[in-house]
């Protein structure tokens, strides 16, 4: 199953919330993404059926290995792109918003070049 941008956003939100809070429920995801609880319920059902998440009897969400891989990939892109934008002088809020849009649309090759460029800057080679 092809995961759409919104599905990637849900997985990224689960990962981010898990890192911040340890446990994640659908209501937490709704708050994080600014969407309704019914929208989250529909998305969680699709992500469960696709094998990206599980939900226990208490309503706690967990990423499967497959979901974790997608979430980590998207979240890494988000953080790196936001850092690059802030390094260019973009304010933090705008950088975070625009990174969220860019992260889904750049190719793996372009992202790898951005990552290498940032590493060169950090290493003092630029």
UniProtKB/TrEMBL annotation:
Q: Which UniProt keywords apply?
A: DNA-binding, Transcription, Transcription regulation
Q: Which PROSITE patterns match?
A: HTH_DTXR
**What's one GO MF term for it?**
transition metal ion binding
* Location of the HTH dtxR-type domain: 1-64
Q: Which InterPro entries does the entry mention?
A: DtxR_MntR_Metal-Reg, Fe_dep_repressor, Fe_dep_repressor_sf, HTH_DTXR, Iron_dep_repressor, WH-like_DNA-bd_sf, WH_DNA-bd_sf
**So which domain of life are we looking at?**
Bacteria
Any Pfam family: Fe_dep_repr_C
Q: Which PANTHER family match?
A: IRON (METAL) DEPENDENT REPRESSOR, DTXR FAMILY, IRON-DEPENDENT TRANSCRIPTIONAL REGULATOR
> Which family does the record assign?
Belongs to the DtxR/MntR family.
- Name assigned to this protein: Metal-dependent transcriptional regulator
The scientific name of the source species is Candidatus Avoscillospira stercorigallinarum
Q: What is the lineage of its organism?
A: Bacteria, Bacillati, Bacillota, Clostridia, Eubacteriales
